[in-house]
Amino acid sequence: MNNNELITKLKTIISPYVQDEQAFNNLSEDTDFVKDLKINSANLVDIILDIEDEFDIRLENEDMEKMLDVKAAINIINTKLSV
User: Domain map of the chain by residue range?
Assistant: First the structure.
């Protein structure tokens, strides 16, 4: 799965939690979930659970702590999918 496909799936997952629509419309690998999209920490947990379900992967605590932006999410998902 390439990065564009991952970003498309991530957009679907995070869209219900986004508080800044303009930042969401300009989403890129550099987009920060909290700073740019204004997603709160409780919703970030929901997103992580949704990512686990969508990609059929298991994220560890250290993965969750690093998953603060789109680029980190893509890297972690790709790592988990390649195992």
Answer: 3-81
